[in-house]
Automatic annotation (TrEMBL):
<dbReference type="GO" id="GO:0005460">
    <property type="term" value="F:UDP-glucose transmembrane transporter activity"/>
</dbReference>
<feature type="transmembrane region" description="Helical">
    <location>
        <begin position="12"/>
        <end position="30"/>
    </location>
</feature>
<protein>
    <recommendedName>
        <fullName>UDP-galactose transporter</fullName>
    </recommendedName>
</protein>
<keyword id="KW-0813">Transport</keyword>
<dbReference type="GO" id="GO:0005789">
    <property type="term" value="C:endoplasmic reticulum membrane"/>
</dbReference>
<feature type="transmembrane region" description="Helical">
    <location>
        <begin position="137"/>
        <end position="153"/>
    </location>
</feature>
<feature type="transmembrane region" description="Helical">
    <location>
        <begin position="50"/>
        <end position="70"/>
    </location>
</feature>
<dbReference type="Pfam" id="PF08449">
    <property type="entry name" value="UAA"/>
</dbReference>
<keyword id="KW-1133">Transmembrane helix</keyword>
<dbReference type="GO" id="GO:0000139">
    <property type="term" value="C:Golgi membrane"/>
</dbReference>
<feature type="transmembrane region" description="Helical">
    <location>
        <begin position="165"/>
        <end position="183"/>
    </location>
</feature>
<keyword id="KW-0812">Transmembrane</keyword>
<feature type="transmembrane region" description="Helical">
    <location>
        <begin position="203"/>
        <end position="233"/>
    </location>
</feature>
<dbReference type="InterPro" id="IPR013657">
    <property type="entry name" value="SCL35B1-4/HUT1"/>
</dbReference>
<dbReference type="GO" id="GO:0005459">
    <property type="term" value="F:UDP-galactose transmembrane transporter activity"/>
</dbReference>
<dbReference type="InterPro" id="IPR037185">
    <property type="entry name" value="EmrE-like"/>
</dbReference>
<keyword id="KW-0472">Membrane</keyword>
Length: 324
């Protein structure tokens, strides 16, 4: 059993990494749902998704900067690619938030995001001439079909909780995920060609810096900075939720980087994949979602697809899904 300089064994580091990721991101998901389900005394809801991304990315920048001061930064990084990656990533996150703000239930949104392989596969097939196995197609189909069934079966008070606009935004978010996957591959290739090995906090700081800049520009153009700040000032209760949400994001990312630094990326992929399933179940049992029998069938089908995708990675088969 190896022990590092700090005296931590590998099992201890694994417990710290896994425990940190689960704790931070399960709470993160719960808070995200709370933010967009919050109703002010005047009956209005928080819908400033891009403004929320500014706040979240800013906290991550602060933590990333501190990490860089401790670990040291890497010079000569392809910042243009970081800018593209940050823009696409914040777009995906903002559109997910907009889906929640426009009536899509949290369980459906998380399951749908687990099907991000669909746009990645489509882009690779159309542009890259990639080929996939029948199993890979079935995995993605199971996640998509299960999500659709949950969307139909997820009822509350006799009304479907998944609006057409919410579905539209989650589809756009998935497209942005597909674009992000391609950009990240190009980013890693450019770093390798330049003989660079970016450190975890290089990724955290620079990606979130460009995420914040993009979100700020969009939120300014949409007037969300002023309306978001006004809404928070009028409803201080939501400020606590947003603050904890942003802090959980930064803490969770730090534990992800800790896990990646100490173990193979597959370990982190496994943890983040299973975390999505627990996030869905936690939401169903704690947020008052009501599922009929068809909804539970959809949960089982989508979960099976997610676990099959994870099993493929564990056994070394290349899958199309980029988990983050």
């Amino acid at each position: 059993m190896t022990v590092d300089d700090a005296g931590l064994s590998d099992p201890a580091k694994l417990i710290i990494g896994v425990g940190g990721i689960y704790s931070a991101f399960l709470y993160y998901g719960s808070l995200q749902e709370d933010v967009f389900r919050y109703t002010a005394p005047d009956g209005t809801n928080f819908k400033q998704a891009w403004f929320l991304q500014v706040v979240e990315a800013f906290v991550n920048i602060v933590v990333g900067f501190i990490g860089l001061q401790i670990s040291g930064g890497t010079k000569g990084l392809p910042l243009k690619m970081f800018a593209l990656s940050g823009t696409s990533q914040v777009s995906a996150k903002a559109f997910t938030s907009l889906a929640l703000a426009n009536g899509l239930s949290f369980p459906v949104a998380i399951l749908a995001k687990s099907g991000k392989a669909a746009p990645v596969m489509a882009g690779s097939l159309l542009l890259g001439g990639a080929k996939y196995t029948g199993r890979e197609y079935l995995q993605v189909l199971a996640i998509i079909a299960g999500t659709a069934i949950v969307g139909i079966g997820n009822k509350k008070g006799g009304e479907s909780s998944s609006s057409g606009l919410g579905v539209f935004f989650i589809v756009i978010s998935l497209v942005a995920d597909g674009i992000t996957g391609g950009i990240q591959k190009k980013l890693k290739a450019d770093c390798a060609d330049a003989g660079l090995r970016p450190k975890p906090y290089d990724f955290m700081f620079w990606t979130n810096l460009f995420m914040a800049l993009t979100a700020f520009i969009v939120s300014i153009s949409l007037g969300e900075v002023s309306t978001g700040a006004y809404y928070i000032a009028e409803n201080p209760e939501i400020l606590s939720k947003i603050t904890r949400f942003a802090v959980c994001s930064a803490v969770g990312q730090s534990f992800i980087f800790f896990t990646i630094a100490n173990f193979e990326p597959l370990v982190c992929t496994t943890v983040t994949t299973t975390r999505k399933i627990f996030s869905v179940m936690l939401s169903i049992f704690t947020k008052g979602h009501s599922l009929d029998n068809h909804g539970w069938v959809g949960i089982a089908l989508a979960t099976g697809g997610i676990l099959a995708e994870m099993e493929s990675k564990v056994n070394g088969r290349k899958g199309p899904i980029l988990n983050t």
